[in-house]
Amino acid sequence: MTKFIHTLEIELSSEANKETALKQKAYMRNQFEFYGLTSPTRRVLQKPFLVKEYLPQKEELAEIVKALWQKPQREFQLFAQDLVLKYVKRFEKKDIELLEYMVINKSWWDTVDMIAVKLMGGYFKIYPEERSIYVNKWLKSNNIWLQRSALLFQLKYKKEIDIELLSLGINSLLGSKEFFINKAIGWVLREYSRTNPAWVMAFVEKTELSNLSKREALRLIK
Questions:
Q1: Which pLDDT value is given to residue 1?
Q2: Which of 16, 82, 118, 206 has the fewest CB within 10 Å, making it most exposed?
Q3: Which residues of 7-29 are buried (b: 16+ CB within 10 A; e: fewer)?
């Protein structure tokens, strides 16, 4: 594990750009440090570490991800997400704990949205019986990033979406003043309008959504 992370660090730092790093840090409200890698550059540098034959053992995944999450440069967390994505089909029931850890630590939209949509979304397709347990837990958590995840994990479910769970999540968060919550409500409704515009229209009409949520929800309809 140590060798894997050390080699990754050498590769990512090899293309560091201080000027770009300062711009990226400012864009993310000075919350994180950066090497200053563009997304295409980072993907090229990390590609060898995601080759199937060289992936770490699944048993090491949680420890590696948590070690990467402690690194100051944001590129390590972005890489960690892509690494976990390689194991989605091999998720065990306990792996939801790792996904929660990733959401509640160093939280911001650039990591949370990918974790919610691709990782949690994949997890709950494998373990649908866990959905209501965690959605209820997250909605009551007072953590806006877990609450956002409770909404967004179904973003790409299309016809497989659990409408009751979606309605529960939205109704539980009505009245929130948080931008990231109201944006997520509108986003998930907008995405579902691609599949069922009539349901979304009816839901918006009967629900007291924020102006932001309503505007986003109807963007593809009106």
A1: 74
A2: 206
A3: ebbebbeebeeeebbeebbeeee
Task: Show contacts of 161-170: CB within 8 Å, 24+ apart.
Answer: 161/192, 161/195, 162/131, 163/199, 165/131, 165/132, 165/135, 166/192, 167/203, 168/135, 168/136, 168/139, 169/135, 169/139, 170/203, 170/207, 170/209
- Residue 189 CA to residue 196 CA, distance in Å, equals 10
Amino acid, res. 66? K
pTM of the model: 0.95
| Sign of the CA dihedral with 118 first, then 120, 124, and 127 last | positive
Query: What is the b/e burial string over 186-215, where b = at least 16 CB atoms within 10 angstroms of the residue's CB?
Result: bbbbbbbbeeeeebbbebbeebebbeebbe
Report the 3 state secondary structure along 138-169.
HHCCCCHHHHHHHHHCCCCCHHHCCHHHHHHH
Q: Model confidence over 136-178: pLDDT tens digits?
A: 999 999 999 999 999 999 999 999 999 999 999 999 999 999 9
Per-residue pLDDT, 2: 87
126 Cα distance to chain centroid: 17
Written as six digits, the tokens of 165 are 């769970």
Residue with tokens 């967004």, as numbered in its chain: 152
State both tokens at 39. 């997304």
